[in-house]
């Protein structure tokens, strides 16, 4: 029995350290938790993190509840704060719409208009929107907290907004 403990215990500690490192990476990105805005030719003014990476909403989420779990979080890491930190509203962001909900391992996920915010793993630099419309469930967020589902279009050298948004209460039952 002691020999099993000698083998299993170090492996368990290594696994726990790996999980902690993964969570620390997610948390470090969110420890500042500043939500900013970016004007996009494609989507108008949308929410971004402190690095200028797009922030997304997941349509199955409900106000105050994240439904992205397990493997989903590998591709869609949540924007989180740790400890007593609070999310910070950058220019153009309505501070009254920022909040947090309880997330895994004692962290808190940042919300906007009550809905959890996520980043997309394939968005590796500022101004990328690779997750937009992914699986018909992931959309960038306007400064009002609504989903931005269609891109703005350019006509005659000027951008006109054909952006449609929705501020539904979430849930997978919405039809768009």
How would you sum up this structure, described in words?
With 176 residues, the chain is α+β, with helices and mostly antiparallel strands. 19% of the residues lie in helices and 26% in strands. The protein is built from 2 helices and 13 strands, in the order αβββαββββββββββ. Strands 3-9-10-13 form a 4-stranded antiparallel sheet, with no helix packed on it. β6 (98-102) and β7 form a beta hairpin. The protein is globular and about 35 Å long. Mean pLDDT is 77; it is low at 1-30 and 154-176.
Global geometry = globular
**Can you count the beta strands?**
13
Please bin the fraction of helical residues.
10-25%
Query: What's the oligomerization state?
Result: single chain
Count structural domains. Answer: 1
Summed over residues and divided by their number, the pLDDT gives a mean of: 77
Unreliable spans are: 1-30, 154-176
- Across the major sheet, the strand order is 3-9-10-13
Brief account:
With 176 residues, the chain is of the alpha+beta class. The chain has one domain (28-166).
Features:
176 residues; alpha+beta; 4-stranded antiparallel β-sheet; 2 helices; 19% helix; disordered N terminus
